[in-house]
TrEMBL record:
In the C-terminal section; belongs to the class-I pyridoxal-phosphate-dependent aminotransferase family. InterPro entries: Aminotransferase_I/II_large, HTH_trans_reg/aminotransferase, PyrdxlP-dep_Trfase, PyrdxlP-dep_Trfase_major, PyrdxlP-dep_Trfase_small, Tscrpt_reg_HTH_GntR, WH-like_DNA-bd_sf, WH_DNA-bd_sf. This is PLP-dependent aminotransferase family protein. Residues 16-84 form the HTH gntR-type domain. GO terms for molecular function: DNA binding; DNA-binding transcription factor activity; pyridoxal phosphate binding; transaminase activity. The lineage of its organism: Bacteria, Pseudomonadati, Pseudomonadota, Betaproteobacteria, Burkholderiales. It comes from Ottowia beijingensis.
Length: 499
C-alpha cells in the first residue's frame, strides 16, 4: 500500500481552486527540496482517492504543473519532477542544431553507464580496445537486423556495415563514387552536411524540383539525362529541413527512374525510427540495387551515439566503400559499437526511443499551439519548417532571434541555389528540456511577481520579443516593432507562394 508523502498536505476550503492547490503543493515541495528532479509523483487515481477529489481535478493539477515546468509525463510510466529551470541562467537556446530531445527523467546517463559496464563485462579486453571492422560479425549483424527490421530483407543481397556516423559515410560514398566536377542530384532544400561534403569534393550540386510529396519523378529523369549525374542523395522521411515524408507511391516511382537511369542512390534515413508507420525505404523498392541506405542512431536516440548502419550493395561497391573508410575514419569505435549492440539486444534502445518519441510529440504539440497552421511538421519529428512571406529575409529574421538569445536555421543553410523559398527550420529537440522550450522567454514586468509566486512560465516561442515587418515591404522592415515569434508568425500573409 502506497504511503502518503510528507509534502502532500490537506487541501484547505476557501483557498482557491483545488487543482491549483495541488499544483502549488508540488511547487512548494520542489522549492523546499522535498521533491527533486527525477522523483516520481503519485499516480493520479491514488492521489484523487487520498485527497477526496475527482480524478479530473488531479488531472488538471498535473497539467498545471506541467505548464509551470514542474512535471514531465511519460505514457505508461507516470509523471516525474522535471529538471530545474532558471530563465535568467539559460544563455543561448540553440534551436538550430537538430538533435533528439532527451527524456526529462535523466535516464540517458544511467543507460550509458549500465551499457558500457555490460560491454566491458561481456567482451574481452582485446575486442573492445582494438579497431572495429565496419563489416559486422554474426552477433552484431543480428542486432542490426533487429534494429533495421523487415526492410532489410526487402533490400536483397546487401551487406550491413557500421560507421562513425552518417556524415562520414556520406563523404566516403561521394568520394568513392564521384570525381571532382561530377554532378550530383538532391532536393532543392537538403541536409547541410551533404552540401558541405559535396562542395569539399568539388562536385556540382543540382537541385531537382519537387512538390508536396517530394522529388518529382519526371524532373529526376530529366536531370539524370541532361546532367549525366550518376548519384542522387535523398532524405525522404521527415525530410531535413521541410519535415515532409515521401509517400510509398512516389518512392516506387523514384525507384523506377533510378533503375532506368542506372543512378546510384544515397538514402539518408535518420528520422525513420521516430515514426511508427514509416513507408518502406526507396532502397527497398529497388531491392538494394545501386543504393546505399544510411540509418543513424544519433538523430533518434542521442547525439553521443556517433554510429550509423550502412546497408550497401554486395560486391565491388562495398569493397570500394571500405577502402574509402580506411582512408578516413577507420570505422566506428569498438566501445561505441558494443554499446549500440548491447542497447539493441537488451531492449534499452527501444525503450529510450519510446520516451524520445513521447517527448518529441509533446514538444511538437507545444510548437503547433503557438505557431500558425502553416508550419510543416510531423507529430513525432524533432524539427519543423516555418515558411516566411517572401518579403521577409530569413537570414535577417534568424539573426534578430539570435540577438534575442534563440538560435534557429535559415533557408540559406539548406539551399542548393540562390533563389530559395523563404523559411526557417526550428529544432524542437534543441532545448535542453521541455521546460526550457516553454519557459525561456523574457517576461513583462507585470507578470514577474506572479511567476515568483506560482512559477508560471511563458512559452519561449510565444513571447520572445523579435523585430517584425508590419509594412509589407520587400525587405526587412526598418520600423520593426517588438513582437513574438508566435504572434509575428500568426500575422504573416501566407496567401502568396514564396519564390
Amino acid at each position: 500500500m502506497q504511503r502518503r508523502p510528507a509534502w502532500l498536505k490537506p487541501l484547505v476550503a476557501g483557498s482557491g481552486p483545488r487543482y491549483l492547490q495541488i499544483a502549488d503543493l508540488i511547487a512548494h515541495a520542489v522549492r523546499n527540496g522535498e521533491l527533486k528532479a527525477g522523483d516520481q509523483v503519485p499516480p493520479q487515481r491514488w492521489l484523487a482517492t487520498e485527497l477526496g477529489v475527482d480524478l479530473t481535478t488531479v488531472t488538471r493539477a498535473y497539467a498545471e504543473a506541467r505548464v509551470r515546468g514542474l512535471l514531465a509525463s511519460f505514457g505508461g510510466r507516470g509523471s516525474f519532477i522535471a529538471e530545474p529551470y532558471d530563465p535568467s541562467q539559460r544563455g543561448m537556446v540553440d534551436l538550430a542544431m537538430n538533435i533528439p530531445p532527451q527524456p526529462a527523467n535523466r535516464a540517458l546517463a544511467d543507460h550509458i553507464k549500465a551499457g558500457m559496464s555490460e560491454v566491458v563485462t561481456r567482451h574481452d579486453a582485446e575486442s573492445v580496445s582494438g579497431y572495429h571492422h565496419p563489416v559486422l560479425e554474426p552477433t552484431a549483424l543480428q542486432a542490426a537486423r533487429t534494429w533495421l527490421g523487415p526492410m532489410l530483407d526487402a533490400m536483397g543481397q546487401s551487406q550491413v556495415l557500421m560507421c562513425a556516423g552518417t556524415q562520414g559515410a556520406i563523404f566516403n560514398l561521394l568520394q568513392a563514387h564521384t570525381r571532382r566536377g561530377d554532378a550530383v542530384l538532391c532536393d532543392p532544400l537538403t541536409y547541410p552536411g551533404f552540401l558541405r561534403a559535396a562542395r569539399a569534393l568539388g562536385l556540382k550540386i543540382i537541385g531537382v524540383p519537387g512538390d508536396a510529396s517530394g522529388m518529382l519523378p519526371d524532373a529526376l529523369e530529366r536531370s539524370c539525362r541532361d546532367t549525366g549525374a550518376g548519384l542522387l542523395y535523398l532524405n525522404p522521411t521527415i525530410q531535413n529541413p521541410t519535415a515532409s515524408t515521401m509517400p510509398t507511391a512516389r518512392r516506387q516511382d523514384i525507384a523506377a527512374v533510378l533503375r532506368k537511369s542506372k543512378v546510384t542512390l544515397i538514402e539518408d534515413d535518420p528520422y525513420r525510427h521516430l515514426l511508427n508507420d514509416a513507408p518502406l525505404p526507396i532502397s527497398a523498392c529497388t531491392s538494394g540495387e545501386r543504393s546505399y541506405y544510411l540509418a543513424s542512431l544519433s538523430k533518434c536516440l542521442s547525439p553521443s551515439l556517433r554510429a550509423a548502419y550502412v546497408v550497401a550493395p554486395s560486391g565491388q561497391a562495398t569493397t570500394t566503400l571500405l577502402e574509402s573508410f580506411a582512408a578516413t575514419s577507420m570505422g566506428c569505435s569498438a566501445l561505441l559499437a558494443g554499446l549500440v549492440q548491447t542497447w539493441i539486444v537488451n531492449g534499452t534502445a527501444k525503450s529510450l526511443l519510446g520516451e524520445i518519441q513521447l517527448e518529441a510529440r509533446s514538444r511538437q504539440a507545444l510548437a503547433r499551439s503557438i505557431l500558425p497552421g502553416s508550419i510543416q511538421a510531423h507529430p513525432s519529428g524533432i524539427h519543423l519548417w516555418l515558411p516566411l512571406p517572401p518579403q521577409w529575409r530569413p537570414t535577417a529574421f534568424s539573426q534578430a532571434l539570435e540577438d534575442m538569445g534563440v538560435r534557429i536555421a535559415a533557408t540559406n543553410a539548406f539551399g542548393v541555389e540562390d533563389e530559395l523559398p523563404s523559411g526557417v527550420r526550428i529544432s524542437v529537440g534543441g532545448a535542453r528540456s521541455h521546460a526550457e522550450l516553454q519557459c525561456c522567454a523574457a517576461e513583462d514586468p507585470d507578470s514577474a511577481r506572479e511567476k515568483s509566486d506560482r512559477q508560471q512560465p511563458h512559452g519561449c516561442l510565444a513571447t520572445r520579443p523579435i523585430p517584425m515587418c508590419t509594412c509589407n515591404q520587400a525587405s526587412w522592415c526598418r520600423n520593426a516593432q517588438p513582437d513574438s515569434i508566435g504572434a509575428a508568425a500568426g500575422r504573416m500573409d501566407f496567401s502568396s507562394t514564396p519564390p
